[in-house]
Amino acid sequence: MLRLSSRQPGFAEAFDRVVSDRRESAVDVAADVAAILKDVRQRGDAALTDYTRRFDGHDLDRTGWQVSAADCKAAFDTLEPSLRSALELAAERIRAYHAAQLPENRDYTDAQGVRLGAIWNAVDAAGLYVPGGRAAYPSSLLMNAIPAKVAGVPRLVVVTPTPGGEVNPLVLAAAHLAGVDEVWRVGGAHAVAALAYGTERIAPVDVVTGPGNAWVAEAKRQLYGVVGIDMVAGPSEILVIADAANDPVRIAADLLSQAEHDPTSQSILITDDAAFADDVARVVETELSTLATQRTARDSWSVNGVIIDVDTLDEAPSLANALAAEHVEIATDDPESLMRRIRHAGSIFLGRMTPEAVGDYVAGPNHVLPTGRRARFSSGLSVLDFMKRTSFIQLDQAALEAIGPAAVALANAEGLPAHARSISVRLSR
Amino acid sequence: MLRLSSRQPGFAEAFDRVVSDRRESAVDVAADVAAILKDVRQRGDAALTDYTRRFDGHDLDRTGWQVSAADCKAAFDTLEPSLRSALELAAERIRAYHAAQLPENRDYTDAQGVRLGAIWNAVDAAGLYVPGGRAAYPSSLLMNAIPAKVAGVPRLVVVTPTPGGEVNPLVLAAAHLAGVDEVWRVGGAHAVAALAYGTERIAPVDVVTGPGNAWVAEAKRQLYGVVGIDMVAGPSEILVIADAANDPVRIAADLLSQAEHDPTSQSILITDDAAFADDVARVVETELSTLATQRTARDSWSVNGVIIDVDTLDEAPSLANALAAEHVEIATDDPESLMRRIRHAGSIFLGRMTPEAVGDYVAGPNHVLPTGRRARFSSGLSVLDFMKRTSFIQLDQAALEAIGPAAVALANAEGLPAHARSISVRLSR
Asked: Which positions are annotated as binding Zn(2+) (chains A, B) (predicted)?
């Protein structure tokens, strides 16, 4: 864990290093991934069979290519009741928050008589990547699938690796609850290629979302333009802004909730009280000793954890804007005044009773958020990622007479006479 | 020009070939571009100097790195008056259309007492690529710069190659009108790298938009995630749906307005009258003989032009959806009924008096639109490309008691005990 103080000499440089430190995998998988994409594009299902045997250790023709809707329903029906209601509450709240995001169409006629507007449509098909192993989270499935369904996507396809053929019943239950249409037992860069290009068995989709390892992320990046994708995701991060009026146990718990995700995750505390910072650091150590995920959390906290002492929390917003963190918790009595000055953040958690984890599951807003300072220019997943806008224009003779000549002048100035002519042949003068 | 009829045997296959035909450059510039990006990242301005000398044939230290605001203003002031008013009309109409796109923030408290919302902010800085040479269009500058300014972007940077040191006065005039803050005399993949990474002279930006050649497009694709980008753009295209009540001269002009852009552009006509189709094809040939841009237009029309005869225009929407064209013109008496069935299109031009070119300049909606069937999943440029959304969540004790236990259950089920603990330490029971 790195301890900084905004009063120390060289703070600006040390903080800049925290900001610019890239925690993302330095492994260059671009060439490997390009080869896999090409192979799937050429050989289709045969390539998927080979990669699945190699990476997941099972034979798709034997284990089955798809998990049936009946199996997903069975997984849901046999969930322990309190878990089932928790999943239902999460789904219902996510649905409500995202339904209110649905954009409105526009259609109006302006003073020149030009009718203008825009119509939003859902994409025809969306593919959701659901990781296997450590990061096989039903909450992640809900956060990706529900916005797509709310957007009105008719076909929703999940791809997920099932190492050794084993499926995760919680993920299947979530797929049932979210109304996923197809679940394919394939994962990795080859699964993303199958979604984008299509294979004999898997029809192509228009948008691919969902988290994955470095290969999956690189596959999405390379296929951007063939399909739409959500933002490339990196390691998760939290910035907690807290004063000394907080219980150190709670703030330590918030920092550890991020640290347990992955060794590359990052938890940062900004506080205006050095003694409180010491307390939090101590509690983190104590808690780590009993935490079931202590190995991951300790790796993350020791390598990437940061505590920054500041004179006053008034300094926090500019530091937060530089970090542009995925999650920002503001545990003060008046979180609003600090939030108003934070321009770059994925999601903000206000006050002492809003631990970030509540947003991971049941609050309603999406937990797929920009990481690695990408909150400077990108947003969390929303219904808009599964929709697109078609603008429209309608002129009558009078409207064309009013604005057409200006277009003719510009087209001629740009050296595009056929553009000019398509307008001038319709003008009366 | 390819002539198809929906009645002919094998039409489905022939049409599929039109749909899947990739008109984009098959040249693989990925490795070249990767090397350039790396070089600019390492050597900064020195790399820009070298590449500019090599590709644009001038020495930046001699010609000057920037075009001054005074030079842009001078270019605007010395514009021929009718051209200046045309540019002003365009800017004003583009501004009005995009201002109405500004998203609204949300802030509400739901039945469980959970406060939820979302705040939109502009990015800190945007970079606009403006091509030199054939495609140096002032209209393109307005279409990129005005949405950024309307979004509230404080710093707007243009990069543009100036071969031999020569600037395009129309582009400078448009930069002045749109309120661009900096104009740098660099173009190519290296200019995009400079925008994304920053150099000694050029501060980095958060979003890069604007058209360019294959190198520029590949640079944007590779830098996606380092910065936000608009959709990767390919060759332009138009689909004209027209009945026999149209003047063939007008429809031919519309087809040619697209064809004159580039040899890779594509113009497609769908009509329910074979004799009308013949007339249009004849007029295209006649017009080509006098068109100043005939060389480009002829290349485009002969290689990529398509006329499809259908029995009834009722067949047109499903063909249009498969093509997912950048521009769709519906030249009929009741364009509305066809538009309602078109789900995938960049922009639709309704009726007989709305040539596509009017949308290129003065209608108001953006002319930066998805090409190459990307209208299936992406939208034209808008203020949203220069903004991002931060969600927020606020719970009090009662709200956390209401929904927190469900989050605890899910966190435990996902094997994330620190997530669970960050909530349970705040619960009273």
From this structure: 258, 261, 360, 419
